[in-house]
Amino acid sequence: MSASHAVWALRLHIVFVTKYRRKTLTPEILDALQEAFAEILADWRCTLVECGGEADHVHRLIGIHPALNIAPVINHLKSARSRRMRNRFADP
């Protein structure tokens, strides 16, 4: 990314782990998480560079704008992501 007199490439490697490392993440949930992260990050002027995961954790490589504070972005990712996943995959 660049501005008039600056060039930057800030990357964050974030790992979210399930509670008690329970193996609850299915391939369907991992795909839904990828979509949710991409949408949420776009609202914050960030990009989802790479993603991956297993049954008990997910890895995300995020390109972040330098004007943003990291903590609010992470907090928003955690809350919005879990809310979306509960709404989509909750037991009836």
What would you note in describing this structure?
This protein has helices at residues 27-43, 70-89; strands spanning 10-17, 47-54, 57-64. The chain has one domain (10-89): 2-Layer Sandwich (Alpha-Beta Plaits), CATH 3.30.70.1290. The mean pLDDT is 89. Strand 2 and strand 3 (57-64) form a beta hairpin. It is built from 2 helices and 3 strands, in the order E-H-E-E-H. The longest helix is centred in the C-terminal third of the chain and has 20 residues, at 70-89. With 92 residues, the protein is α+β, with helices and mostly antiparallel strands. The chain is elongated.
What descriptors fit this protein?
92 residues; Alpha-Beta Plaits; 3-stranded antiparallel β-sheet; elongated
Low-confidence stretches: none
- Could you say how many structural domains there are in total? 1
CATH topology: Alpha-Beta Plaits
Give the N-to-C terminal Cα separation. Answer: 44 Å
The CATH homologous superfamily is named: Transposase IS200-like
CATH architecture: 2-Layer Sandwich
Largest sheet: 3 strands, antiparallel
Estimated share of beta-strand residues: 25-35%
Q: What is the mean pLDDT? A: 89
Q: For this structure, what is the CATH class?
A: Alpha Beta
* Class per helix and strand makeup: alpha+beta
Strand neighbour order, sheet with most strands: 1-3-2
Q: What's the Cα radius of gyration?
A: 14 Å
- Percent of residues in helices comes to 40-55%
Helix-strand topology string = EHEEH
Annotation, overall tally of beta strands: 3
The number of distinct helices, counting runs of at least 4 residues, comes to 2
General shape: elongated
The quaternary organization reads as: single chain
